[in-house]
């Protein structure tokens, strides 16, 4: 296993596309894990050398950087849409549908639930006439 990666991770998705409607639900799980790389730390509170003193403290400054805690977790994304014509569609999507507290990178913020709407028009520049 490469250093600083989770032992277990998986993703699953369901996609529906029939007639004028489409939708999808995707789930992603990354086992919570401690990340150490140079001055960057994303880990639970722990005594690394066994001397009885916590060398790493979660939600506190550790050296020059801030440690927000372990990386990983479980999140669900979803989208739905409608094809108004062959070229025009309207859709909506949710990222982190259940507002899970998941960090992807060291010192990155938690991504709260995001809602997005879209209108797409397809132009085929290479269509043969």
Automatic annotation (TrEMBL):
Source organism (scientific name): Flavobacterium degerlachei
GO (cellular component) term, any one: cell outer membrane
The protein's name: Iron complex outermembrane recepter protein
Top-rank taxon, per record: Bacteria
Lineage of producing organism: Bacteria, Pseudomonadati, Bacteroidota, Flavobacteriia, Flavobacteriales
Subcellular location(s) of the protein: Cell outer membrane
Main localisation: membrane
Keywords of the record: Cell outer membrane, Membrane
InterPro entries for the chain: Beta-barrel_TonB_sf (IPR036942)
């Amino acid at each position: 296993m490469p250093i600083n990666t989770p032992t277990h991770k998986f993703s699953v998705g369901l996609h529906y596309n029939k007639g004028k409607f489409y939708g999808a639900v995707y789930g992603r799980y990354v086992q919570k894990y401690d990340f150490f790389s140079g001055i960057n730390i994303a880990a639970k509170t722990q005594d690394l050398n066994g001397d009885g003193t916590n060398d790493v403290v979660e939600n506190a400054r550790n050296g020059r950087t801030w440690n927000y805690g372990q990386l990983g977790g479980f999140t669900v994304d979803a989208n739905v849409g409608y094809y108004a014509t062959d070229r025009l569609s309207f859709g909506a999507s949710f990222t982190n549908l259940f507002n899970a507290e998941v960090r992807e990178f060291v010192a990155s913020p938690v991504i709260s639930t995001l809602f997005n709407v879209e209108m797409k028009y397809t132009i085929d520049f290479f269509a043969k006439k």
